[in-house]
Hints:
44% helix; 160 residues; Rossmann fold
Amino acid sequence: MAKAIYPGSFDPITNGHIDVAVRAAAVFDELVVCVYDTPSKNLMFSTEERLELAKLSLANIANISVETYQRGLTIELAKHHGATAMVRGLRNERDFGSEFELALMNRNLDETIESVFIMTSPKYGFVSSTLMKEAVSLGGDISDLVSPIVLKALQEKNNS
């Protein structure tokens, strides 16, 4: 049974993330979306909020589970889950450069776990969590770029 992890901060999860997760779930028997507890960037949502938004956004996909993980090597997280692959989404050449370096490091750390890259659908090629937060804060309509539950959460954060 092929199992993969899909790690990220998901602050918040976007339709681009969901697109990659759904497509990865079609390739692997099981996909664990792993919400990183302490990334080195400013977060809008708490770990619990990001976890809940991801769970709600992916609830209709039977072979996807969502959990958090804390500090440590992501390759160790993959081994902990018995995963044979780590899924990463790519939007553009900038993503490719950084993900390529990370994949080589992970390969150096453990040759048994593959990095699998999934190109986002073209309609989400420009979507990032940062851009979604900024657009909502300035009154932009991003309803086609995030799930309704995420849109509501973003609007509530900006109105508080």
